[in-house]
Amino acid sequence: MVNSLALSPCVRYSLHVKTKTLQLDGDRLLATLSALANPHRLRIIAMLESGGRNYVSQLARELGISRPLLHLHLQKLEDAGLVTSQLELSPDGKALKFFEAAPFDVELTPAAIAQAAQSLTNHTET
Fold it and tell me: What is the pLDDT of residues 16-45, one digit of tens each?
């Protein structure tokens, strides 16, 4: 039996996947939510998840955004631990930075937020 979701051209997003080994502290939770709070960054993760690892120039072409703007978004995602990168040399000697979606789980419940809030290091509101 073929999984019908695997054949679907749409991308599914899930923020409520429980993990048994990793609890996000308050600062890490804020970084994760901040990184996900942008449509370009959601599209980047979706593209990397559905198409696999890719290099910056190709991602920029496929997303229709400039490489400098893409770099800013990728840096935010990488800082939050949502994507990983690796620098590789192409056969013609060019340095290509490849990115891929990192496996991540975010439990977003009132209890998880209350627990994470206790470990916030920045107590000022923005």
Answer: 434 333 567 888 888 899 999 999 999 999
